[in-house]
Amino acid sequence: MIILKTEREISIMIEAGRISARALKLAGESVKPGISTWEIDSIAQEYIESQDAVPSFLNHKEYPASTCISINNVVVHGVPSKDIIVKKGDIVSIDIGAYFEGFHGDNAYTFACGEISETAQRLINTTKESLAKGIEVAVVDNKIGDISHTIQKYAEERGYSLVRKYVGHGIGTGLHEDPSVPNFGEPHKGAKLCKGMVIAIEPMVNIGTHEVRVLSDNWTTVTADGKLSAHFEHTIAITDDGPIILTNAE
């Protein structure tokens, strides 16, 4: 069931999104050679809690951290650790959520650690732009499939693949609500976009195969072929005036 949000609820979600976005910005600024993913996680958690909010991910389905930090061929759900050290040339995807006054905000961004390869930069640029293209078509009376198809078309035309095991989602009082928002699919299919819908759109784009595998910790998810992956995400609200990005740090 898709739960539409009132203007008042969306106003709270704007603040939840702002906290999430600012935590993500701080985490990204800390991405430097020699830092551990555990330290990055601590920076994000401390900021979220300083805003009278709670990290959305911490203990969600027994997840043990406040962020997901996924490096290079790790697609999503990289568990922060004191033993995982960021190196120059890495690409570091950070996914962060904050729960504030009963509502969640959720966002992700892939950061470069120092100078990275042209191959990695092109992947990051394509993934970021595919999210922007998906948001552009998230308008009243379009369908979820229009978002999905737009993201898929943009990335695949540039030679990349879209992860299919994990998708975007509705969001509100629950971190994951209906509808699912795949990053692949057919236009004009799926749920109709209505005023008051709030969704998290999150393309996960791979250089090689779209196939992934989950490691023995039952969280960390890597590309099946070991090639690079990037991840971007925004929480947006569907309004009569077009999509509004709620995960805005400003």
Automatic annotation (TrEMBL):
One GO CC annotation: cytosol
Binding-site residues, substrate: H77, H176
GO biological process: proteolysis
Cofactor info, note text: Binds 2 divalent metal cations per subunit. Has a high-affinity and a low affinity metal-binding site. The true nature of the physiological cofactor is under debate. The enzyme is active with cobalt, zinc, manganese or divalent iron ions. Most likely, methionine aminopeptidases function as mononuclear Fe(2+)-metalloproteases under physiological conditions, and the catalytically relevant metal-binding site has been assigned to the histidine-containing high-affinity site.
One Pfam family in the UniProt entry: Peptidase_M24
Source taxon at top rank: Bacteria
Catalytically driven reaction(s): Release of N-terminal amino acids, preferentially methionine, from peptides and arylamides
Coiled-coil ranges from the UniProt annotation: none
Broad class of enzyme this protein falls into: hydrolase
Names of required cofactors: Co(2+); Zn(2+); Mn(2+); Fe(2+)
GO MF entry, a single one: metal ion binding
Binding-site list for a divalent metal cation 1: D95, D106, E233
Keywords: Aminopeptidase, Hydrolase, Metal-binding, Protease
Residues reported to bind a divalent metal cation 2: D106, H169, E202, E233
EC number: 3.4.11.18
Domain Peptidase M24: 13-240
The keyword Transport is annotated on this UniProt entry: no
PROSITE patterns referenced in this protein's UniProt entry, alphabetically: MAP_1
Family, per entry: Belongs to the peptidase M24A family. Methionine aminopeptidase type 1 subfamily.
Function: Removes the N-terminal methionine from nascent proteins. The N-terminal methionine is often cleaved when the second residue in the primary sequence is small and uncharged (Met-Ala-, Cys, Gly, Pro, Ser, Thr, or Val). Requires deformylation of the N(alpha)-formylated initiator methionine before it can be hydrolyzed.
Assembly notes: Monomer.
PANTHER family per record: METHIONINE AMINOPEPTIDASE (PTHR43330:SF27)
Protein name per its UniProtKB record: Methionine aminopeptidase
